[in-house]
Queue: 2 jobs
Job 1
Amino acid sequence: MKPIEEPVRWLDPRSEAPDRLRRVLAEGRDALGPTPEQMASLGASMAGATAAATGSGAGAGAAKAASIAATHAGQGLTKAAAVKLVAILAIGGAGGGIGWAVVHSSGPSPAPQELHASSGPGPVATTASVPPVAPPREDTTRAPAASGPAESIPVTNAPAPSAPAASEQAAREQATTTATTTGAPPRAEPTGALAGPAPAPTEAPPLEAPSPAAAPPVAESELALLDRARSRLPADPSDALRALDEHRARYPHGTFVQEREVLAIEALVQLGRRPEAEARAAAFAAQFPGSAHRRRIAVLLGGDGG
Amino acid sequence: MEALRALEPSDGLPPPVPVITLDAIVAEHGAFVWRTLRRLGVGEAHVEDVAQEVLLVVHRRLADYDARSGMRAWLYGICAKKGSEHRRRAWLRRERPVADAPETSTEPEQAAVLERREAVARLEAILADLDPRKRDVFVLFELEEMSLAEVAAAVGCPLQTAYSRLQSARALVQASIARLHAREGES
């Protein structure tokens, strides 16, 4: 069988794909995915849902599920209950769009921490008490299971930091460094938790290792930066502005230039730096005369025309 | 060689217990599940519910997970099943996606909502010419960044087939983006 060469992904900047195409792909993907708030809510509601589901969850995993759920019931339920409410609001408010407006309005929802929390302390206890997958195939997997993690350590220890912001940063850096050193750059996301120590049957590592081969998600970090700015805006406009400045420096011709400018104007207004806000609004109007955002900018500046 | 390495318990430290927890799956693959369901036609209003269903199945069947085909291939199979169940239910209920967001949304956030929808629409536009089989391969490879082998496992076809589907999907996508650009250029 002749080996099939893995094509260069179009999201990879080294590929032949034109930038616009790459952007459409990356933005479409991001837009289809959950917002950080939605992710947090999903993670939190799963913690509660597994506890509830275990009662009816017959089958091979029931016993393990029970102990996992028991752990979660203790640690996760209170949070889950609280966040579930947010989740319901978010679903109700989603309406084909995204629910984070509602999530925000119902209280500061520190999504990444929430997410981290649900995947951090929880599983530690779980981990100690239940190795959910390994035992059934212990006989066949002893060696490869250990070789999995060994192989992936160099790949994964950079993105391992679990605080999402940090890991995003690390992933970005790592993506750039590793892209040059290996033919198949490891995925930018932290795959360590799973891909590495996965209870791999014999052939798994070769499959698992190249699979994360991926270009750094192109627009994801741009979007992530703006999401950060947007979420900080109500509480800390200067912090939001810093994120926006970073965006401006890194993505001068990014996909979300207009969105960034609107947020920046909003931040400047909130900080009372009105002349700057107005200057940026004027520049915006000159650069994007037909933009739908101009109405919003007019509202922000309290003017009556856009 | 690998076996040798496996026998060394990394300098006296106890070897890490290889465990997959649901938390880890949610954290790492939750977004993938979410996007996959959305692409499979689950509306924004229901996607979190269906994602939960998927993850509950994952939770119950964690023991069945076969790492050879890769976590995402496995998740994809579950998503496909749950997604189609959902579509069937929605069809029976004659449900339509909820259109109106409550008034609590403020304008910039709505702008973000719109932008996301537009981004999805743009993506849809360039994928419009692909039949489902090519589309699956294209999306899993290009957007989800799965390896071709993983893609083949996920959609259940030989590697060579995945490869040729990808090639022909690429050609179609390039053609449709060229058409879109030509149209934009005229205006």
Job 2
Amino acid sequence: MSAVLDHHGDHAHDDHHHAPTGWRRWVFATNHKDIGTLYLLFAFTMLMIGGVLALLIRAELFQPGLQVVNPELFNQLTTMHGLIMVFGAIMPAFVGFANWMIPLQIGASDMAFARMNNFSFWLMIPAALMLAGSFFMPGGAPAAGWTLYAPLTLQMGPSMDAGIFAMHILGASSIMGSINIIVTILNMRAPGMTLMKMPMFAWTWLITAYLLIAVMPVLAGAITMTLTDRHFGTSFFNPAGGGDPIMYQHIFWFFGHPEVYIMILPAFGIISQVVPAFARKKLFGYASMVYATSSIAILSFIVWAHHMFTTGMPVTGQLFFMYATMLIAVPTAVKIFNWIATMWRGSMTFETPMLFAVGFIFVFTMGGFTGLIPAIAPIDTQLQDTYYIVAHFHYVLVAGSLFAMFSGFYYWAPKWTGVMYSETRGKIHFWWSLISFNITFFPMHFLGLAGMPRRYADYPMQFADFNAVASVGGFFFGFAQVYFFLFIVLPMMRGQGEKAPQRPWEGAEGLEWEVPSPAPFHTFENPPKLDATATKVIG
Amino acid sequence: MKNMSNKLASNLRHAGVWAGVWFATAAQAVNDLPGGPSVRQLNLPEPATKIAAAQNSLHWMMLILCTVIFIGVFSVMFYSIWKHRKSKGHKAANFHESVTVEVVWTVIPFIIVILMALPATKLVVAQKDTSNADLTIKVTGYQWKWGYDYLKGEGEGIGFISTLDPAQRVMSNAGKPQGDDFLFRVDNPLVVPVGKKIRIITTAEDVIHAFAVPQFGIKQDAIPGFVRDTWFRAERTGDFYGQCQELCGKEHAYMPIHVKVLSAQDYSQWVDGEKKKMAAKADDPAKVWTQADLMARGEKVYAANCVACHQASGKGAGTIKPIDGAAVALDADKTRMIAVLLNGQANGTMPAWKQLSDTEIAAVITFAKNSWSNKTGQVVQPAEVKTARK
């Protein structure tokens, strides 16, 4: 290991003298911090694009009747909103966090494969252009839902092929990113940083990376078969040729359910770092957190068909997937209990990162419970494909993943930029987001229970009021994120604000707080010597 | 528990009404639709079958359990947030591990979820038991309408298509919806007798649809190339409504389900009437029609089946190809267009229409070949379609 590190150290030293500047710095970037920044900016751009699509959906649904878009465009909007948010915003954003923080947290000089790191980022640009550009192709963007169910996908125009190609590229990028993270974590930890002393964020990402490698090829297989069904006369999913459309769903959700955890495990990692820092108390049950995360990852492979209860599975199938799904509640509950036990008898302060972390725990748990309810197969008979499901997964993906990322941003951005954010503005952003989020998505539970199907461009008049409320909330939520960028992110990137100390948070522990703020271009060029807890550098 | 849950429900409803008064938008006045959704409905609909009632109580059980746990867990968290803060001078304790505690709070949730899943098991089995049905009806999903065929039991042989009332689609497009049954009104509702076990067999012609009637507690995907089933036994007569619940293309929101539940006597009467109508309506495929008659009939068929995609102008839109000026419509070889209607085209973007009668297909082709700028003067007779079918 030391040989690798030494060699790497030399290189880094070399680069130091020829560090590219201007556009070359970004296009030829091999520095994990620069690539992390690129990932985060890319993800935020996609969040804005996906958000605009969401607001067009909400504008159309503000009142019954078609006012803004026609049903064709509506289906394109829902499909592209899903694809862009999942593959363009949430996943790359977490990779951005990983790039910035994992080498800093484990005392490595950079990611293991610096050039592959560059490649996996720049691959996403053509993919994103292709995805977003599909709106301008003949027949418009794909409109078969983000799940791309066959045989509806076989009826789509040429943009479907562009979409499939884009997903292939994004998948390849994710796999490269995962390999990079796994190799970095397993091989480049500073001496003394054993696996069980590693920060939780690195742990959750290690597990997530394995999930990604396991399931991205499965998605690639499913969409490749869709592609050959569309153009090369195969009939994997085309019933007209003896194919099985339900087989597509099985394959898709075998990818899709682990994917859900890919989008939430790194969030658990961030929360597990933020809560102890602001409770000024060590994380309760570190080992059980690691085991709980691993159990969730393993269980995620045997629950996929709970997305398919209404396809007409046999009794035994329904029972198996119902029980397996409910089992996931156990490790998830353990995590919630551990966070609360960490807070218990701590010495808490509530700066913005902690606000978002507590907000996360509170609202994410609601999303957890609204997942437990449709896990009961007979209740899912009522709720499947209704707005209840829409409410549920936005509670876990927006109030879950997105809020955790905000928490992580406020926690680490002083290290990235060297300046503190404005605490007042951070608090405004938090309360504004939390309240408007709930106004948007809470009424959707009622709509779903009342039977309003999802992906409907128009709906019966009885559903009008809750839809109006959700739309108003949605616009407020959208503006809150614009505010976040203009008044919090931009000033920090420009270096405006109070200078950040090396350790801005009293209770924060870990190697990232052992380097100055902003973190210099190269850190840990020589492996640091660590204390017994592997949280401090001692020379 | 039922009492308590009812009370809770009514309290919630009151709260909902008050909130509703607050945010009532400029939307037109609307009332509850009996058998369909209520205005600002907060919970599952009033059940009309035993299965739906069981789902309701299961949901109440889950909701209450989850709420109690939620409140329990978060009162601990908020107590801690209130008491254990630095501004109150609280010093951090130093504990961070306890195997006993970890085991306890792993085992307890485990037991709770098992207890939650047990009552559901019985219901899963009951929902799936489609044996010994009194009446079996095949439901076929088409883009974008439902086909109902009575396969077995009283009314065997009856079959019809159920489509959204076109006026509703016009209102939707105009952005001016009206009426309590907006988007629920169809031309031919599915008619079933009360108190009888109805087995629904689902399949689809083109893409996946889902047949759902919330008040019966049923939702079953209709999958092309595959047959699935579900069942219900309606406890009371009346009209019940549902909507397609699986994304099936652009008119997904416009293929509602209307089930009319009649008393045994009324149902028998309806079956008699239906049989007589069928006998009277059956077109003789050997009949030779005049062009004018075929055009008039074809215009109706076009309005009912084709206009959603190809538009009244015959010019299509987006990926939908125009008929106006299309080579296949102008072609002197009539069999080409007949083949497109019978078999579909472009992977089902143009679906197959073989469920229409020979006369209907002949009429709509004649109509298309002689409308807009198409002036072929060709007439397609039902007999030609009949030959092409083989």
